[in-house]
Recover the amino acids of this structure.
């Protein structure tokens, strides 16, 4: 149990930073651990080579600074780097977004998450490998406490966290600076009037939070190692701890973080003991270790209700307006006809790209329903898709024909979505984003990751689908691969799905959704059952995500868990927001923008240039930019520009559009 | 309380208490609203008027006491179910659906969904929007404004949208939270005339407002709240003459003692 102190200390330290930035800017920074991970990699690189690695696209990768940096020099470097990162993120991203809708801030922090995770991968190509020589900062001798051996670094880490907690608590409650922070978070205008500069307060707190994250990750390296994806996901248990502390209390947060780490280590120790026999073999032990604390937190969240204050002195901007779908039949005919033409005339690579975009649109459509129409930020859609994908293969392997296998797996996805949705009814806004991300991690680790469902390392393959005796499988030998028959099947499903969503949106059900999105208490006063409206949307969105999972299964020769990673889910939400989260046209554009979809494939075949490595980094960056300059997304921007064009010329709209497309390119 | 022909009152509030932490916002509040009445609920700032509306409509769980509507206990009934029973409220801050047009703001409150209607919604392109809104639209005077959005409207027009949204389901009882806030005298007088006409449509009214002219003109009966308690009840004339009420409004903290 004491062995978990180290992991717990890191979770606690990250969680303290999350509380700090929440109390400063009302932002739950999903990129918190990813920023720390970048700092840690940069620190080790500097210590090894004396090179400063820059995380900014367009600047040179690295600058040589010192021939042989000492430990002290490297630590000072890490301190400065993390502080500068914190300052930059606050000044460039979250300060401009302070009065934006919660979703805009979630999206911006997801964009940063993508950006930092991927820039770490790009800048440190050996990431995850053992090529980097490490220099442990803390001693690793073993100390005996209560008869058990504990590595000294774990004890020192825990001690450091407690010291930081004490210091933060004292600063926040005993000094003028702490008072200023609390005042500025509650009422910025009032704080300005009483002579406090919210910008300075914010900048300092973001720098402190970023330093905490950087050092937490540097110090955990000897215990847990480093990996851009895994280490960045440490933000999930940290969020859990921060939420248990109500995003306010440093003390409870630190205690919760330590406890989560110890519980994780207990579970690991218990599960691998030879006499633990009741846990079936196919349950992934690491999954259990990751998921159990997350599930506990979800339960705590649901039981407590929303711990986040919903009222803020700063007036939040609403979500982008949701235009009523018009001429659905015409658009279906035009786009459907174009798709059919493409499927029969394109070469295999473009046919593949088109099919990828068609399938992906099912996923982005699910985000439009649950987030765009009902205002509920769900980061778990990809996990529902993953469950459906593997369930489809499972039931198809057991002899169920293609359309029925799809139906069954979609029903299962809907059930899972509702199971996540019911506890999520008690939380909203940022906490909902956290809760659904935690659910996604739990599903990925426990359900999708279990070898019984996903077939372990080898993955699984779906049997060839037949519809009324016609072969609608995707694969064929050589240039005939990516068969149009499969594409047309997906197209028919997608058109039907879009029609259902468009109908609901135009009819009273959709109006109730928008009413709930606009104002929950007014909706209740108007006789709308808010819980039912949300659950209905959750159910429909899970079904759509399930369809995405199924067709991904049928479109992939060997389906593995990597098709449904949490990070992929974040990308999908991000892409949808980028394209326009509150309209079907946004879902379609997001589908076209998908990785390996039509637009990126055309881009790389024409330009020949942009390596696809940069897709995540640029989409992360594009996301942050769009969240700040064009919260209605690209389709909303286009719609507004067209409207203005017919109204009167509006040069400024064109300028904004130009900036955005530059950033997205 | 005088009750017409001895039948149960439309709304019975019986010993309702509401606390925020240690502060009692409502303390043993009891009163009734009869069929066809326009009843006023007045009191100085902080008297617990909005708390009272929140408690009656289920937006705040009450500590003790009972609320009965048309003889039926509302214990454990959710806010939206109370609205569907015909017990509808408005908000002081209006809380319009800013994303929706006026027409949509009204129609969203008109229908009661069922599984069948949801299914029809999913399969039918666009159902007819002729849903009996016309009468309410002309009643509150929103003709010609139906395709505007709340952000493009004046304060007075927004008030009419809020009122229209509350009336569109033909409620049995309408709770109005400061409906005259920010209205000019002409608009306020119009509102008073409208409220007096509502009982003929089958809608009784519980009116909470600061505008004494409006309350005195529109109401049959008035209850006065101070420090979470009902300190006086009666006709406008009786309440105007009540010295406890005068004391409370003059701002002495022990109005009833001064008055008594």
């Amino acid at each position: 149990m004491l062995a978990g102190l180290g992991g717990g200390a890191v979770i606690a330290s990250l969680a303290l930073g999350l509380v700090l930035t929440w109390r400063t800017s009302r932002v739950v920074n999903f990129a918190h651990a990813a920023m720390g991970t970048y700092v840690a990699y940069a620190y080790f690189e500097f210590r090894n080579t004396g090179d400063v690695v820059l995380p900014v696209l367009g600047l040179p990768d690295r600058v040589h600074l010192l021939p042989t940096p000492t430990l002290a020099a490297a630590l000072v470097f890490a301190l400065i780097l993390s502080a500068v990162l914190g300052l930059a993120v606050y000044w460039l991203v979250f300060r401009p977004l302070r009065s934006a809708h919660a979703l805009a801030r979630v999206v911006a922090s997801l964009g940063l998450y993508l950006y930092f995770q991927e820039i770490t991968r790009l800048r440190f190509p050996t990431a995850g490998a053992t090529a980097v020589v490490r220099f442990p900062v803390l001693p690793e001798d073993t100390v005996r406490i209560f008869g058990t051996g504990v590595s000294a670094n774990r004890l020192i880490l825990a001690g450091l966290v407690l010291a930081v907690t004490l210091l933060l608590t004292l600063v926040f409650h005993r000094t003028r600076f702490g008072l200023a922070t609390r005042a500025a978070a509650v009422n910025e205008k009032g704080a300005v009037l009483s002579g406090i500069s919210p910008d300075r307060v914010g900048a300092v707190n973001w720098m402190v939070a970023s330093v905490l994250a950087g050092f937490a990750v540097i110090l955990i390296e000897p215990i847990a190692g480093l990996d851009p994806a895994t280490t960045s996901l440490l933000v999930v248990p940290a969020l859990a701890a921060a939420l248990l502390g109500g995003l306010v209390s440093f003390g409870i947060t630190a205690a919760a973080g330590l406890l989560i780490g110890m519980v994780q280590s207990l579970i690991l120790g218990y599960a691998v003991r030879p006499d633990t026999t009741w846990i079936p073999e196919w349950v992934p032990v690491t999954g259990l270790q990751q998921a159990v604390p997350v599930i506990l937190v979800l339960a705590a969240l649901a039981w407590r209700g929303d711990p986040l204050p919903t009222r803020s002195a700063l007036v939040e901007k609403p979500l982008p307006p949701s235009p009523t779908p018009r001429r659905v039949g015409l658009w279906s005919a035009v786009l459907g006809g174009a798709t059919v033409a493409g499927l029969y005339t394109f070469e295999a690579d473009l046919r593949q790209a088109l099919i990828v975009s068609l399938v992906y649109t099912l996923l982005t459509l699910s985000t439009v329903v649950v987030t765009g129409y009902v205002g509920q930020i769900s980061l778990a859609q990809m996990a529902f898709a993953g469950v459906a994908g593997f369930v489809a293969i499972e039931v198809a392997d057991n002899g169920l024909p293609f359309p029925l296998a799809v139906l069954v797996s979609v029903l299962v996805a809907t059930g899972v979505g509702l199971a996540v949705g019911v506890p999520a009814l008690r939380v909203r806004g940022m906490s909902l984003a956290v809760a659904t991300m935690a659910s996604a991690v739990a599903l990925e680790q426990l359900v999708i990751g279990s070898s019984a469902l996903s077939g372990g390392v080898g993955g699984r393959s779906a049997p060839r689908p037949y519809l009324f005796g016609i072969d609608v499988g995707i694969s064929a030998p050589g240039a005939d691969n990516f068969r149009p028959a499969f594409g047309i099947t997906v197209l028919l499903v997608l058109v039907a799905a879009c029609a259902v969503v468009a109908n609901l949106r135009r009819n009273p059900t959709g109006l109730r959704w928008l009413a709930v999105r606009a104002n929950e208490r007014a909706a209740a006063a108007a006789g709308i059952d808010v819980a039912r409206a949300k659950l209905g949307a959750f159910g429909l969105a899970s079904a759509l995500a399930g369809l995405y999972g199924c067709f991904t299964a049928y479109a992939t020769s060997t389906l593995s868990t990597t098709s449904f990673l949490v990070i992929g889910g974040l990308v999908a939400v991000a892409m949808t927001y980028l394209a326009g989260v509150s309209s079907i046209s946004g879902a379609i554009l997001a589908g076209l923008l998908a990785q390996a979809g039509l637009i990126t494939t055309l881009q790389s075949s024409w330009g020949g240039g942009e390596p696809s490595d940069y897709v995540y980094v640029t989409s992360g960056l594009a996301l942050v930019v769009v969240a700040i300059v064009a919260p209605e997304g690209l389709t909303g921007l286009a719609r507004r520009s067209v409207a203005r064009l017919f109204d009167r010329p509006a040069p400024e709209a064109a300028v904004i559009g130009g900036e955005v497309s530059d950033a997205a390119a | 309380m005088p009750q017409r022909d001895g039948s149960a009152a439309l709304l019975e509030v019986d010993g309702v208490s509401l606390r925020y932490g240690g502060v009692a916002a409502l303390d043993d509040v009891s009163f009734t609203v009869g069929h066809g009445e326009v009843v006023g609920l007045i009191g100085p700032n902080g008297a617990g008027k909005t708390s009272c509306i929140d408690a009656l409509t289920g937006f705040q769980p009450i500590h003790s006491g009972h609320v009965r509507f048309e003889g039926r206990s509302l214990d454990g009934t959710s806010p939206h179910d109370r609205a569907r029973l015909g017990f509808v409220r408005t908000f002081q801050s209006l809380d319009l659906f800013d994303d929706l047009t006026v027409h949509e703001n009204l129609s969203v409150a008109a229908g009661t969904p069922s599984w069948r209607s949801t299914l029809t919604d999913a399969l039918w392109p666009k159902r007819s929007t002729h849903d009996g809104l016309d009468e309410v639209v002309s009643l509150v005077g929103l003709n010609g404004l139906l395709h505007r959005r709340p952000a493009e409207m004046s304060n007075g027009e927004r008030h009419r949208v809020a009122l229209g949204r509350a009336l569109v389901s033909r409620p049995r009882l309408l709770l109005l939270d400061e409906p005259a806030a920010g209205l000019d005298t002409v608009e306020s007088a119009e509102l008073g005339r409208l409220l007096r006409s509502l009982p003929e449509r089958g809608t009784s009214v519980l009116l909470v407002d600061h505008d004494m002219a409006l309350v005195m003109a529109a109401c049959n009966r008035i209850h006065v709240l101070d420090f979470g308690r009902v300190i006086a009840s009666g006709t406008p004339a009786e309440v105007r003459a009540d010295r406890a009420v005068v004391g409370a409004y003059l701002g002495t903290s022990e109005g009833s003692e001064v008055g008594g």
Notes: Residues 128-133, 307-315, 648-665 of chain A have pLDDT under 50 and may be disordered. The longest strand of chain A covers residues 142-145.
